[in-house]
Design goal:
mainly alpha; DNA polymerase, domain 1; hpI Integrase, Chain A; 3-stranded antiparallel sheet; 3 strands; about 55% helix
Length: about 300
């Protein structure tokens, strides 16, 4: 089965164009599934039944695995069995009749507009790294890009004259996102003042660079966001996608339509974007409770 898992993951990478992070997650999910099957002494793929897959999901839940993670593992198992059936390695797909676990969508933590302003104001723009960090924070909030997309952003993908950038997202899907004036100003200053010094006579196609003149890592992006959140004395839980969530929420709060926000976020399914409408509803309930004379 391990060889078949490798073949399947190679198919996802080469033919489906899934990101390396997704491949790594699916490998972990399928290895957990394989361990469960081995533990049950099932020695052939053809002997796996619907009840075995359901048993795996229940075992994951009993171990305290989050519902979202269980659902993702089921998605990996379904894709794997579908692949095996399509390649005629298996005659039947035992996963077809299994229902996805019902999930309460976890509403992501977002920052208020004032908190975002405080966060972006923290970098010391008298230093090269401070200029770079301000540009990073402005870009993340202006575009709603994923951190993984921002670290791979190339200079040629950014057009500051017309105020747009070209983003390569999940599955190598391309989308164009507008840049606001403040982000444009910060990126221009970074390119003029800071990036040449970070490069130190070297060359790089990437926009955001480390202090060694190389493409900045996702871990560094994460540390930058946490560092300035701490300096801004923001008490909320800060995660790599916090600015992305805040971007979407603030657009919808100010009247943006859901389809436009979906396009800018790069969501393939609008139901993923709709989670931000739940945030608005919770905010309205809070305001109603606080100010209505009969809450």
């Amino acid at each position: 089965m391990k060889e078949l898992i490798d073949t399947f993951l190679n198919y996802l990478s080469v033919e489906r164009g899934l990101s390396n992070n997704t491949i790594v997650s699916y490998r972990e999910d399928l290895n957990n599934y394989l361990d469960f099957i081995d533990h049950k002494h099932i020695d052939a793929l053809s002997k796996i039944s619907k009840n075995d897959i359901t048993g795996f999901m229940l075992a994951q839940r009993d171990r305290g695995i989050a519902a979202n993670s269980v659902a993702r593992r089921l998605a990996a198992i379904r894709m794997f069995h579908r692949f095996l059936a399509r390649e005629r390695i298996l005659k039947d797909d035992p996963s077809t009749l299994i229902d996805s676990p019902r999930l309460w969508k976890k509403i992501p933590e977002t920052l208020s507009i004032n908190e975002v302003e405080a966060l972006i104001a923290q970098p010391d723009v008298r230093s090269n790294q401070g200029v770079r960090d301000r540009a990073i924070l402005e870009t993340l909030y202006a575009t709603g890009m994923r951190v993984s997309e921002a670290v791979n952003l190339k200079r040629d993908n950014v057009n500051l004259d017309i105020g747009f950038l070209r983003c390569i997202g999940k599955g190598n899907k391309e989308r164009v996102i507008p840049l606001g004036k403040k982000a444009i100003t910060s990126i221009k200053r970074y390119l003029e003042v800071s990036q040449p010094k970070l490069l130190n006579n070297k060359e790089s196609e990437f926009l955001f660079l480390s202090r060694f003149g190389k493409k900045i890592s996702r871990q560094s992006f994460w540390k930058i966001i946490k560092k300035y959140a701490r300096l801004a004395r923001i008490k909320k839980t800060i995660k790599p996608h916090t600015l992305r969530h805040s971007f979407a929420t603030h657009l919808l709060e100010r009247g943006a339509d859901l389809r436009s926000v979906q396009e800018m976020l790069g969501h393939s399914n609008i139901s993923t974007t709709q989670i931000y409408t739940h945030i608005n509803k919770d905010r309205l309930k809070s305001i109603h409770k606080q100010f209505h004379p009969r809450p």
